[in-house]
Amino acid sequence: MRKINIDKLIRDNIRELVPYSSARSEYTGKDAVFLDANENPFNFPYNRYPDPLQMTLKERVSDLKNVPVENIFLGNGSDEAIDLLIRAFCEPSLDNIVSISPTYGMYKVCADINNVSIISVALNDLFQIDGNELLRKCTPRTKLIYLCSPNNPTAQLLQKEDVVALLEKFEGLVVVDEAYIDFAKEHTLVPLLAEYNNLVILQTLSKAWGMAGIRLGMAFADVQVITCLNKIKYPYNVNTLTIEAGLKTLNNEKQKDDWVNKILDEKKKLIEVLKEFSFVNKVFHSDANFILVKTDSPRKIYDFLVNKRIIIRDRSKVALCEGCLRITVGTPHENQILINALKEYL
Ligand SMILES: *Cc1c(COP(=O)(O)O)cnc(C)c1O
Q: Whole-number mean pLDDT of the chain?
């Protein structure tokens, strides 16, 4: 078990912060006459503030993910955790984060908003990380390394050995965003949480679970990290409607698995068709629910499809993604509409 000093990593003002103490966190019993929070006594259950720590929902997540409740943070999408981690650990204008390029845009946006600089290290041409290069780019003020696996927009898993090497050597936190892990389930790094207190894993209900609209994200990490995030979050960051819908969703894992299987099946078919088009130079391997495709004329294809009211993502201006379009796998019907349009483009 590798243990870094997390306490030392936290910003001084956050370590010393006395968090807001809500009515609902001072008395946690259920069966009582609640006259403590100035709520309207009518219109149960929505008249009541939600549980600030979402314990019922966390117990369900704990069962599903095999992670103890005290190692779970729930937020308003995983975007909330991405932001809170930066705010908890990075002193504006002094500390920095290291990330990969290309990757999900929110790491940079959150760093920018917090006036924390971000050092980007290019993936190699196999879309994998060079661990030594990442470590060389770290400075004494690097607090977090943000990784994404499967990575967006490259669609591929990072190699476990490379992430482990960083966990072994880096003195800060290694955040692995697993937003797409349900599409490559057996590759989750969650089991490594027991061995490394500097590992943070982000997951979400926004992709495989089909619940982007309710905004529910998860972070799994050492108790000290979770405690720190709970200290600085808005007291009621996950609302009652989201808690209700989240519970209902997580109680039907089979539905999610069925969707995942269907999407993976469709992905396979779509890849075979895409490969045959003369304007497609390469279809990259995908461990997620989207496909990165290298073409001769990405903008022309993108515009042609938009004209037919089919919206994909032009990633051709992104590092290492020259000529690339990113296509999300849709329903069989939607994929057929896309294929018909591309035949017409030909
Ligand atoms: C879609 C996506 C998310 C999801 O964020 P939420 O705030 O949970 O909706 C997170 N990370 C990556 C890399 C994504 O592509």
A: 97
Quickly tell me which residue has 């997390």 as its tokens. Answer: 6
Residue 213 CB–ligand 1 contact under 6 Å: no
Q: From CA 144, how far away is CA 225, in angstroms rounded?
A: 12
What Å distances lie between residue 179 and 202, 280, 306, 344, CA to CA? Answer: 7, 27, 27, 34
Ligand 1: distance of its center to the CA of 169 in Å? Answer: 27
Point out the ligand 1 atom lying closest to the alpha carbon of residue 206: 9
Please work out whether the CB of residue 95 comes within 6 Å of at least one atom of ligand 1.
Answer: no
Task: For 77-91, write each residue's pLDDT tens digit.
Answer: 999 999 999 999 999
Nearest CA to ligand 1 atom 11: 179
> Does residue 111 contact residue 85 with C-beta atoms inside 8 Å?
no
Looking at residues 190-197, what average pLDDT do you find? 98
Among 343, 42, 89, 123, smallest CA distance to 221 is for: 89
The answer to whether 240 and 50 are in contact (CB under 8 A) is: yes
CB-ligand 1 contact for 79 (6 Å cutoff): yes
Going from the Cα of 149 to the center of ligand 1, the distance in angstroms, rounded, reads 11
Residues 122 and 128: their CA atoms lie apart, in Å, by 9
| pTM (two decimals) | 0.97
Q: Is 148 in the pocket of ligand 1 (CB under 6 A)?
A: yes
- CA dist 274 and 120 (Å) reads 31
Bridge-based pairing of strands 173-177 and 142-148 is parallel
